[in-house]
Amino acid sequence: MNVKETLKKTEEYIAERLPVDKMNYASMVQKKEVPVHRLSWSYYMGGLALFFFMVQIVTGLMLLFYYQPTVSDAHASVEYITDHIPAGGLVRNIHAWASSLMIGSVLVHLLTAFAMKAFEKPRELTWVTGILLLGITFAFGFTGYLLPWHQIAVNATKIGLQTIEQIGAYLPGAMSDWPRQAKEIIQGEASVGQATLSRFFALHVIVLPLAIFAVLGFHLVSVQLHGMSKGIDEKPRSMEKFFPTFFLKDLRVWGFAFMVLYILGVCLPFESLFSYPLFEPFDPKGSTPDGIKPEWYFFWVYYPLELLPLWVILVGSTLLGFVLMATPWIFKNTNRKTLQLIAIVAGIYLIIMTVWGENIYHLFKG
Predict the structure, then answer these.
(1) pLDDT in tens, 227-286
(2) Under 8 Å CB-to-CB from 118, ≥6 apart: which residues?
(3) In 210-259, which ranges are E strands?
(4) What are the strands, taking DSSP E only, across the chain?
C-alpha cells in the first residue's frame, strides 16, 4: 500500500467516525433518541460526571480567590477558607465531595459503556477519548490532593513519587533512568517542596483543565454525532426522545445530585470520612504519620502494591492501560454477555479493594 492509498484510507476512517459534514445541532437534538432497556439508568452517569465537573469548576474558582500556593501559606489559607470565610467550609467540602463523586461516576460510566459495547464501530474514538478523560480525572485527584499541604498529603505524595522512581529498577539499559528523570521533573527539587506544590497547582488549575476541555469537547461532539449506543441487549425494548423527554429526566437527576452534594457538604466534612484531620500542617522535621494512604479511588492499585512485587503491578497496569485504549479492537467480536461478565468482575474488584482493601491487606500480612 503506497502513501497515497494510506492517506486516503485514513481520511475515510476519520470521516466515518467524525462525519462533521452532517453536523446539524438542531437536527441532532430533534432526531436523537435514547434506547430503553435494563441498563438505561447508565445513560445518566456520563451526564452526572459532567455535572460534578461543572461543580468543580465553580467551587474551584471560589477557592482560588483565597488559596495561596506556597508551602508557608497553603495550609493556613485552606484553614482560613474553612473557618473564617462565610460558607467557605461548605464550598471546600462540596469541592472535595464533587471530586470523589465525579471519579465514581466516571468509573461506573466506563464499566456500563463497556458492558453495552458502546465502543462498537463507529464509536471507537468516543471510547478512546473517554479513557483519556478517565486518566485526566485521576490526575486531577492526584494533583489536588497535595494542595492543602497537610502532613498526610505531603507524605503520601512523596511515597507516590518514590514509587515512580522505583520503576527504573525493572527497565533495561538507558531506559532505567527515565523514571528517575520523570520524578525529578514532577517534583522539581530534591524533595517535595515549593517547586512540587507550584507544579501541582499549575497542573491542577491550568494544564489539566485545558486538557479536559479539549478532550471533553471532542468526546461530546462524537456522542452527539453517533447518538447513544443501542444498549445492553441486541435490541432495546423501545426508544424515547432525547429532547425534551430524556433531557428533563437528566436535569432531574442533576437536581437530586446537587441536593445530595449539598447535604454531604453541610453534614459530613470530607476528611472525617477517612479520619484524616485537615488542620495538621506539614512539618518537614516531623515523623511520617502511620496509616498513610492515597484517596479511595487509588485503593484498587494501592493495596495490591502493598501485597505484591512492584514489577507485577507495573506489568499489570501497563497491560490494563493498553487493553483499555485498544478495547474497540480487542473486543470487536466479543458478545455482550461476555462483556457484561467482565464488567461485573471488574466492578466487584473495585468495590472489594475500595471498601475492604485494608482488611484484606492485614489478613494477608498477618
Answers:
(1) 888 777 767 778 888 888 888 999 999 999 999 999 999 988 766 554 444 557 777 776
(2) 126, 127, 229
(3) 238-241
(4) 33-36, 238-241
Q: What pTM, to 2 d.p., does this model score?
A: 0.92
* Domains of the chain and CATH, by start: 36-292 (1.20.810.10)
Burial grade of 21 (CB within 10 A; 0-12, 13-18, 19 or more): exposed
Three cell numbers written together for 280: 495538621
Rounded distance, CA 287 to CA 142, Å?
22
For residue 74, give the amino acid letter.
A
Distances (CA, A) of 336 to 30, 190, 320, 323, 325: 29, 50, 20, 17, 19
Chain-centre distance for alpha carbon 65: 25
CA-nearest of 348, 350, 322, 333 to 119 is 333
Q: List C-alpha distances in Å: 284 to 149, 150, 288.
A: 11, 11, 9
